[in-house]
Amino acid sequence: MDMEKKIKQELRNRKPSEVVELILDNCRCPKGKIVGLTDEFLNLELLSMADVGLASLDGLPKLPKLRKLELPSNCISRLDALAEKTPALVQLNLRDNKIKDVSTLKPLKKLTMLRSVELLDCEVSALLEYRELVLAFLSQVTYLDGYDTNDKAALSSGSELSADEDGSSDQPENEEDGTEEDDDVESEDGNTEEEGDALDDESDALDDDDIDDDIDDGDDVGDDGDDVGDDDDDVGDDFDAGDDVDDADDLDDDYDDVKEMSPAKKRRKCHDDDSDDSDDSDGDDD
């Protein structure tokens, strides 16, 4: 499928101005030039034309919002059109193209937002100290072939770098995160101490209540002891009352005996009682 037909297929009934990403990989370019792509794609941010047989960038329209351009496995040897047509470019993949030396990269110096370039499998990548030369020549570029000057890897190939990505923002962010974590730990420690104090206060209050309850229990025991003493006195009184009851019972028995006597026995008993009284009287006179 040629490039023009591929573009129509990728539109999917959309207007060119509605397209943000356009993938044209593995289609064919007549005479090695871009065809079918117009400046109507003014909102395009990602354009991929991998292995389409491009020999030049002639025919590339003005794409003011384009940030990522994928052009691997082509035959591109000149980059002049990029400086004028893609001013917002951040990532550029030229892997396996006809880039012979560092001077070929001169048009890229005008792309002030450019942060990542890939040149592996190009002739220039075989130069001695190739990385140092390219990074020094393109001072705005942070990542070459996916790594910076400190061999720190860039984001994954599916992600986009920001225009201000320079690899130096990680440390301050980590420091801020560490500060926030320390604040969180201190806050948790403070909360733990406050909870511990609250528990101690509750424990003291409970202990005081237990002591008061014990004192009240002691008073109850004293009152119970007094009640027991009173009960003992009542028992003693009951015993005394019992003795009086026994004496009354004896008198009742004597009375009943007298009532049951015959008249003769009563007279005899009275006589005996009088004799006893007389004897007692004589005894007293003596």
Which class best fits the helix and strand makeup? mainly alpha
**Helical segment count:** 5
Task: Provide the CATH top-level class of the domain at 3-148.
Answer: Alpha Beta
End-to-end Cα distance: 172 Å
Helical amount among residues, as a percent range? 40-55%
Low-confidence stretches: 166-179, 217-252, 281-286
CATH superfamily of the domain at 3-148: Ribonuclease Inhibitor
Order of helices and strands: HEEEHEEHEHH
Specify the biggest β-sheet: 6 strands, parallel
Gyration radius, rounded? 60 Å
Q: Please, what is the average pLDDT?
A: 74
Report the principal-axis shape: globular
Let me know the number of strands: 6
Q: Give the name of the CATH architecture of the domain at 3-148.
A: Alpha-Beta Horseshoe
**Proportion of residues in extended strands:** 5-15%
Strand order of the largest sheet: 1-2-3-4-5-6
CATH topology of the domain at 3-148: Leucine-rich repeat, LRR (right-handed beta-alpha superhelix)
Question: Helices and strands in order, then pairings?
Answer:
Blueprint: H1 3-11, E1 21-23, E2 46-48, E3 68-70, H2 80-85, E4 91-93, E5 116-118, H3 130-137, E6 143-144, H4 170-260, H5 263-285
Keywords: Leucine-rich repeat, Nucleus, Repeat
Function: Multifunctional protein that is involved in the regulation of many processes.
Family: Belongs to the ANP32 family.
Offer a concise description of the structure.
Helices cover 48% and strands 6% of the residues. The protein has helices at residues 3-11, 80-85, 130-137, 170-260, 263-285, and strands at residues 21-23, 46-48, 68-70, 91-93, 116-118, 143-144. Mean pLDDT is 74; it is low at 166-179, 217-252 and 281-286.
